[in-house]
Each structure stands twice: as structure tokens, then as C-alpha cells.
Amino acid sequence: MQAETKENGLRSFFLVAAQHRFFTEPSPKAGNCDPSAHSRARSAAVTGVMDPARVSQLKHFVDMCKSNPSVLADPSLSFFRDYLESLGANLPPSAYGPGGSKSKDHVVEESDEDMADTEAAAPKVEEEEEDEIIESDIEIEGEIVEPDNDPPQKMGDPSIEVTEENRDASQSAKAQAMEALSEGNLEKAVEQLTEAITLNPTSAIMYATRATVYIKMKKPNAAIRDANAALEINPDSAKGYKSRGMARAMLGQWEEAAKDLHVASKLDYDEEISAVLKKVEPNAHRIEEHRRKYDRLRKEREERKLERERQRRRAEAQAAYEKAKKQEQSSSSRKPSGMPGGFPGGMPGGFPGGMPGGFPGSTPGGMPGGFPGSTPGGMPGNVDFSKILNDPDLMTAFKDPEIMAALQDVMKNPANLAKHQANPKVAPIIAKMMSKFAGPQ
């Protein structure tokens, strides 16, 4: 008696498993259904074999839906559309009739409550508007002069060949310039030095000497041009660095002046350089400290800005995660329960009330009573199928094509059960099902 109960229960379970894959397995070619289809279907449920006529009708209907999806727009087939959508199917617009949009029942809209929760979950990062950094004035000691904007003074032609006569004449002009300088005649001194440079444009000392005269005349730009010319001829010209450093100090270029004067002091130290450095260096240090201070403030300000940006991005990412999580939970709570891959809530009595008009090619009246012989909840027999449907191993087995093929083979002919018990993949599933269908001891 127990063996018979197991066999009947197992047949019923195979039928349920086959129905779980009903829409994905190939079916026989559609044929005409005679008036005795309903009684044969009832008998098929008892024996555990699906009525081929019903399968053929269903296949015919599916083929018709493929060729003309607008058939699904019939309000009486809304339950079938709902079933397909519950499987994740994307139906064409014509399946929804005029307007071609998904039914409101299956459009998941975000409620005001969801929006409120999302806004509450998103931490707000305050955007601090920092004031622009305004640099303070630097207390500078020492006088500066207005830059001279005279046309550039005459320079020598470095490409000419300097003869001995030219060198002698150049030295003579320089001597006259020194004499004019001692007399305080700066203009004449510049004229004589310009003649000396023209006669011997390769002499760095001539340019450096004229630069010192321009410093006395408070023409720092002219002095810098001569000092640069001297350093081009002789990069180790102490007088060139000295005159350029003093000229830059006159223009308030304290840091550059300090660098030039330090180089001049290393090349040829004198008291005048030391005296000028004592005035220049304090200002150069104040400028350097001032620059470091505001460089640091700008860097800190930029780091705070970057940190706020990082916090904002983290907050947005967290809010997006919380929103997606809540939507997923909300979507899961809205999904209808039922047999995986089957009609929501099972198939009570099969297709409810039959399909008015029937499948094409069927007898008038459609399929009265839907799938035959099933008990309320869509499952045949008197076994507690909730334990089966909640078994993760069995639900995973439904997704395995090899196992499903074996189940269908046994469903067609229960005598084939023995040959599948040797399959290490199928045998454990069959054993587990047999144990669940076992009668009371």
C-alpha cells in the first residue's frame, strides 16, 4: 500500500514538475479536440500523464500568440499576461491593446513614502562657502624707484673683429669716463663708456661699469640690460651680478636681488655688497614667508574642498544604494506568491473557467474547467506540496535540463523510473521526492 502511495504521489509530482516547464518544452503538433477531451484530461490527471489533446491546444494557442500578439489584449486573457510578466517576459505593445502600455497593476511606481525614506536616508553634506583668501600687505623696508622707460641704450656689435688699436682706444675712452664720473658728470661718463663698448663689444667689464653708472643715475632697467650683457660675455662676472642685484633692489625685486648679491659676494666679496644685502635680505625673507603662508592656506582650502566633494559622492552613493535596496524590497513584496515558474498562487482548478471561445481548432466552449483534476492550489494529490516547493534542492533541480528530461520521461512512462535511478545526478532528487511522498509509517 505504501509503495502504491509513493508511486501515485511521485507521478503527481512529476506532473507538477512537467507543468513547471510547460511553456518551454516542445509539444506535439496541434490537432483537433473532440468533445471527450475534458473526461480524458480528468483521467490523465489520475494516471499522471497530461492529455495530448490539451497540450496540442495550448501549443496551438501559443503559436497564435506568436503570430498575432494582439490576441493577448483580450481582457479575458489578462491573467495570462500577468503570468507571462511574472516570469519576466517583455510583451509587445500590441499585447496590451490600444495605447500599448503595460497594465497599471504591473507598473511599480515609487510612492511618496519611498521618496521620503530615500531623502531621509541620504545624508546631507553642507556646502561650506569659504571666503576667498585675501593676502595681507607685506611690511617692506627700504625705498624703491620708479622704473625707467627710456629707449634701450646703444650696445656693441659682438660680431666685429676687435683689433689691438680698438682695444687701446676702448681703454682710453674708459679712462675718460672714470674721470667724468669722479667729477660727477654722469652723462659724459655714459657717453665715454658707450664709445668704449662700441670699440670693444667683447669686454664684459665695459658693460658692467656702465651699469654702475646707470645705478647712480637711478635707471635700474638700463643697468639690468648692461649687467645681462656682461654676464652673457662672462657668466662669472662679479661686477655684473652686483650691479644687477643692486638694480633689482631699486625696483623692489627683493628675492631676485638677494640671489644676485649672494652670487656676487661669493665671486668677489666687498663691503658695498654686504651693506646692500643687509637691506635686501629682511624684505626677501618676509616675502618668502608670506608666500609660504598663503600657499599653505590655499592648499588647505583646496584639500577641504576635495574632502567635501568626497563626502558628497559617498553620500550620493549611499543614498543610491539605500534607494535601490528599498525598491528591491518593495518590488519583492509586490510580487505575487505561487509555484515558481507557474501561475501566481498555484493553478486553482487549472485555467479559471476555461477559455471562452476555446483555443483555435478546439471544440466550442474552450477548455471547460481548465487543467484537469487538480485540487485547489493547482497541485494534484493529497500531499503537502509546500514542503516540496520550499525545498531549495528540488527547486534547483527544476532548472536543470537533464533532470527535467528525466522527470518528463518518467511522467510519460513511470516504468522508466528504474533506469534513471542509476544516474548520480537524478537519483538523489528521485530519492528525496520518494521520501516526501512516503505515507505514514
Could you characterize what this model shows?
By secondary structure, the chain is mainly alpha-helical. Among the domains are: 164-280, Tetratricopeptide repeat domain (Serine Threonine Protein Phosphatase 5, Tetratricopeptide repeat); 388-438, 434 Repressor (Amino-terminal Domain), CATH 1.10.260. 58% of the residues lie in helices and 0% in strands. It contains 17 helices and no strands. The chain is rod-shaped, with a radius of gyration of 51 Å. The termini are close together. The model is unreliable at 1-7, 18-35, 41-48, 103-111 and 336-382 (pLDDT under 50).
Fold topology:
Elements: H1 2-20, H2 37-47, H3 52-67, H4 78-86, H5 112-121, H6 164-182, H7 186-199, H8 204-216, H9 220-233, H10 238-250, H11 254-267, H12 271-334, H13 385-389, H14 392-398, H15 401-412, H16 417-420, H17 427-436
What would CATH call the class of the domain at 164-280? Mainly Alpha
Structural class: mainly alpha
How many strands appear in the DSSP assignment? 0
Largest sheet report: none
CATH superfamily of the domain at 164-280: Tetratricopeptide repeat domain
* Contiguous uncertain segments of 5+ residues: 1-7, 18-35, 41-48, 103-111, 336-382
Q: How large is the share of residues in beta strands?
A: under 5%
Q: Figure out the total of helices.
A: 17
What is the CATH topology descriptor of the domain at 164-280?
Serine Threonine Protein Phosphatase 5, Tetratricopeptide repeat
Taken from the alpha-carbon principal axes, the silhouette is rod-shaped
- Mean pLDDT across the residues is 74
End-to-end distance, in Å?
Answer: 11 Å
CATH architecture of the domain at 164-280: Alpha Horseshoe
